[in-house]
Amino acid sequence: MKVLVAVKRVVDYNVKVRPKSDGTGVDLNNVKMAINPFCEIAIEEAVRLKEKGVVTEIVAVSIGAKVSQEQIRTALALGADRGILVETDVEVQPLAIAKLLKAVCDKEQPQMVILGKQAIDGDNNQTGQMLAALTGMSQGTFASEVVVDGDSVTVTREVDSGSQVVKLSLPAVITTDLRLNEPRYASLPNIMKAKKKPMDVMTPEELGVDVTPRVTTLKVEPPAERQAGIKVADVAELVDKLKNEAKVI
Ligand code: AMP
After folding, report:
1. Low-confidence ranges of the chain (pLDDT < 50)
2. Gap from CA of 92 to ligand 1 centroid (Å)
3. Ligand 1 pocket, Cβ-based, cut-off 6 angstroms
4. 3-state secondary structure of 120
5. Mind listing the pLDDT tens digit for each residue in 170-217?
6. What's the pTM value of the predicted model, to 2 decimals?
7. Whose CA is closest to 132, among 168, 161, 160?
8. Distance, CA 182 to ligand 1 centroid (Å)?
9. I want to staple 77 with a disulfide (CB 3.0 to 4.6 A). Which of 51, 157, 186, 234 is the partner?
10. Closest residue by Cα to residue 39 from 117, 111, 96, 107
11. Are 84 and 106 in contact (CB under 8 A)?
């Protein structure tokens, strides 16, 4: 069984991001970039399925600028077999990402596509659902457990009220939630080996997809700064301040 894993290059989750001074976006100058954490979970799940003998090939796909090769190499070091970079300098939005992934699926015919439930930069939480809709594949989103059985896959989903178990026929799109697994670290020998693994590069034009953005970001600004708190001497002073200064009671 072939699995496609979508990996996005995002600002590392440890970085405190700042808007650009003109408010047109997030300042990415000299900022550490990494694989989106939910995509790491997606790779780990594919690798575990391969280790169980369920999956035979893992293809890591990323869409973005040439530098996204770094994240594909990391995915290869973590256990993916080959990579595909859809190279573009346009900041591609979820619908176009889903269309590009569909075009890659049409070529590769995977039995399963695993994506993160969301990318931590845009927090869109849209791509997997759109890909399932465009391809007609079944979808199991927010997965916390994935069990493949023949030509179906049982997915436990994290939902507001607890968990929901769904059985999907393959091919299927799965999006990962935090509790699905704990990703491994890439070992040095595997990082070295990953350098020799194949990586194809293609463009949105070659895949016949128009990636022109449909949504315009008007402004990016930091959250309002919180004012410093104060200590009150007793409950009476607290009530007085809530009543007469904050005017909330
Ligand atoms: P989003 O819908 O933007 O929150 O992203 C959800 C998931 O879609 C991510 O975790 C990735 O698996 C996939 N994805 C989004 N953007 C890209 C991209 N540029 N390249 C590869 N995969 C992506």
Report:
1. none
2. 10
3. 6-8, 36, 38-39, 42, 61-64, 92, 94, 97, 115-116, 118-119, 122, 124-128
4. coil
5. 999 999 999 999 999 999 999 999 999 999 999 999 999 999 999 999
6. 0.92
7. 168
8. 19
9. 186
10. 117
11. no
